[in-house]
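Feature request disguised as a bug report, sorry. It would help if multi-protein outputs had a clear separator. Right now it looks like this:
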Amino acid sequence: MKRPIRNRVQIAIIIFLLYIGWRFYLFVTYFQRGMGLSPPPRPASVEAFLPISALIAFRAWISTGVFDRIHPAGLAIFLAIIITSLLLKRGFCSWLCPIGAASEGLWKTGKRVFGQNFLLPRPVDLLLMLPKYLILAFFLKVALIDMTGPAALGFLNGPYNKIVDARMLVFWIKPGVLTIEVTLLLIAASIFVQNFWCRYLCPYGALLGLLSHISPLKVSRDPDVCINCGACTRACPNRIDVDRTTRVSALECTSCLMCIDACPVDALSLRSNPGNRVLETRLYPAALLGLFFLIIIVAKATGHWHTSITTEEYARLIPIMHMFSH
């Protein structure tokens, strides 16, 4: 029951983001062609793809109290992801993240075509997980330690940050040779190794894993009911030995619920504490999506969603965006 629901959520998110991407493409190309000051609406949701800008905006907000006016939707989405991870584990990665959905689709395709996915030896697996934490540490150091609040505000209000979303669009529409080669390499690796990008390289996932570690909600195993069949561990796409623990606190757990799906005797459940009441797995997506979108609704209702950049400023900056660098 859970997997079809999760797959439908993933597909719905991807369709929505493709629609958002198309609308943003029309917005940017309107100004690139110099068609005047009546562009199609700019979708604020595109700011979800600006995590570094959102991290710097978070730094500015906690130190100065000023909520980002340039990409407020990006900060609101960042906060929604952080809060849901703190309360409901790393469910964003397996339910809402389009990269996570694409990665899952690739390894499932590889498994259907080749009959299996390949497991890297445990020492190699652990070593390859190090880069995402190093990348995360670098960005956290630069944004939260090295950068002061006023400096963060200065970056946010600079011309580079104002059109960084448009630069991102151009980067993917007209990728260089190196970008194409790296992308193809990651796609190939993701076909053969489950969740290659998410497991080894994604700094966002590393951050959410650390935050979700302190989340009260975890997959719990009842040893008195468990028949030690190992089905849960075999079903886990993140190589977690579910059948060897009573509480799954591993950083790689993304709350995909595939282990609970696979259990033949209902020995697994979602609980905030071992003795606490069970959160029915059919309610988990409602809780995750409900909390995530509630934060978005609050951001919109309080005026923290749409950018303060004027149409005139976009008309001036987008045609010359290649001139700005960070």
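(second protein starts here, but nothing in the output says so)
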Amino acid sequence: MIKKTILAGAVCALFSAASANAALIQLTNVTGAWTATTPGSPAVSGGGTNEIRWGSPANQQNQQSGYRFDGAAPPTVNVSENVNFNLGTFTHFNWPIYEPSLTSAQLTVDTTLLIEGVSETISSVFEFQHLESTNNSNPCANGQSNNSGVNVNGCADRVTFALNVGESETFLIDGVNYYVDISGFFYGGVLANEFWTMEEYNNTASLKGIITSRPVSVPEPTTLALPGLGLPGLGARKRLSKAA
């Protein structure tokens, strides 16, 4: 009974120590590139980079409208399991413009993680649809009145997006499966698939992900205890056999 109690205690301590030692996970690099824009170049400039621009400026600041994605790393960022972490920031530069305007674009985000010293890269593709509103309409395209709320500077534009490829990845490292899920874009702190963006304003949304892990297989404590308890008994039987 004493042996079983001690062995059970040792097994519990072993599993407790394993669970207490969290994996070292680091976000080392995040890049984004805009492709497959409609219309294409030269109406939309910057294809293949992290920023695209379009439209003839209809504002005193002489600004085009645009999309930009800025990755959250480098520098390297430590990541905790089971907690949403920031991958980067999407910005819509919303300025009054004359046509041509963007109607759709594709964003590819490459995320590199260092998990227990092993580097892994995930590619995620987002499909964006863009509605360039008529600024002086009333009501505006979102159904609300002009010159108030999100339409305070003229009718807001609508940005709609969907995660197309690379929603989640699994990596097996040192007997542990790591699940990396790209949650999506958070606007105003809420996960969304579309949002209305204010005119004459840099509207931002955060791309977030989450990592969880699970060991491939964990032996039951009784399975570990049996060999330890069985071997001394086996030796005793052999000694008794020789003495006979």
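Even a blank line would do. Unrelated, but nice: The radius of gyration is 28 Å.
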